[in-house]
Amino acid sequence: MKDKLNSEIIKNDNDVFVMLDNLLEEKDNEWWNKFYSDREKPIPFFKNIPDENLVSYMDKDLLKKGKALDIGCGYGRNSFYLYKNGFQTTGIDFSKTSIEWGKQIQKEDSSNVNFLCQSIFDFKDTQESYDFIYDSGCLHHIKPHRRPEYLKIISKYLKSDGYFAMVCFNLKGGSNISDYDVYKDCSMHGGMGFSEHKLKEVLEPYFQIIEFREMIETTNENIFGKSFLWTVLMKKNKIFCISTQNQLFS
Ligand SMILES: C[S@@+](CC[C@H](N)C(=O)[O-])C[C@H]1O[C@@H](n2cnc3c(N)ncnc32)[C@H](O)[C@@H]1O
C-alpha cells in the first residue's frame, strides 16, 4: 500500500499520460506477439499483398521515390511493395514475431527492407528525412491521449514536400466508441472506428488532406481491399509546422 502511495504520484503532464496508459488494458507488443505467432490464422491482412490505395498512389505516379517509413508494418506486406517500387524502406513494428516473419520473407525473396523492432514512440532518425510515411492499421490502436504525440512524430520525420498516407477503421470496421468512452470503459474495444468528421478533426491540425475515401473492396487476389477501412493521403500542414516548430522539433 505504501509502495503504491509513493509510486503513483502525479507531478507533471507526463505522469498524467502514464496514469492514463495504465488505466487501459494492454494491447502491447506481447499481445501482438501472440497475434502473429500463428501465421495460418484467417486474418485478411495475413496475405502478403499491398493495400488497394497504396497501389493506386503508385499507379498514378503520385509519390516521389526516396525514403519510406511504414509504421506498425506487421510482417511488412506494404513495406515490401514500397521496396519493390523503388523506395529505400524502413518498416517499424514493436512486435518481435511480426518482424521475425518479415525478415524470413525477405530472406526468401531477397528484398532489402530495413526492419526495426521497436515502438514508434522510441523511433529516432534524421528530422524531415522521409519522402513517404505510411500507416496501415496502426492509428486505430493508438490510445487517444497518445494520438497527438503520434501525429507529431510523423510530422517531425516527414519532408516538407513528402506525403503521409494512412488506412484506419471506419465505423463498419472498428468499435463505435468516443475517445471519452475509452477511459470510461478502460478499453479500446479492439480498435477504434472513426467517423469521417472525427478522423478529419484528428488529422487536420497536422496535415492537409489530399484524398479521403473508403478503401475499395476488391476481389483481385493481388490487392488488399476492404470497405471497412478509410484511406487518407496527406501532405504536411505547413502553417502548423511553422507555428509550432520549436515544440514539434524539440
Ligand atoms: C492491424 S496491424 C497492421 C499491420 C500491418 N500494417 C499490415 O497492414 O499488415 C497493427 C500493427 O501495429 C503495430 N503497433 C501498434 N502499436 C505500435 C507502436 N506503438 N509502435 C510500433 N508498432 C505498433 C502492431 O504490432 C501491429 O503489427
Automatic annotation (TrEMBL):
Protein name: Class I SAM-dependent methyltransferase
SUPFAM superfamilies for this protein: S-adenosyl-L-methionine-dependent methyltransferases
Statement: the UniProt record of this protein carries the keyword Thylakoid: no
InterPro entries according to UniProt: CFA/CMAS, Methyltranfer_dom, SAM-dependent_MTases_sf
Keyword Methyltransferase applies: yes
Keyword field: Methyltransferase, Transferase
GO molecular function, a single term: methyltransferase activity
Biological processes, Gene Ontology terms: methylation
Organism annotation: Clostridium cibarium
Annotated coiled-coil segments of the chain: none
Domain Methyltransferase, chain residue ranges per copy: 64-172
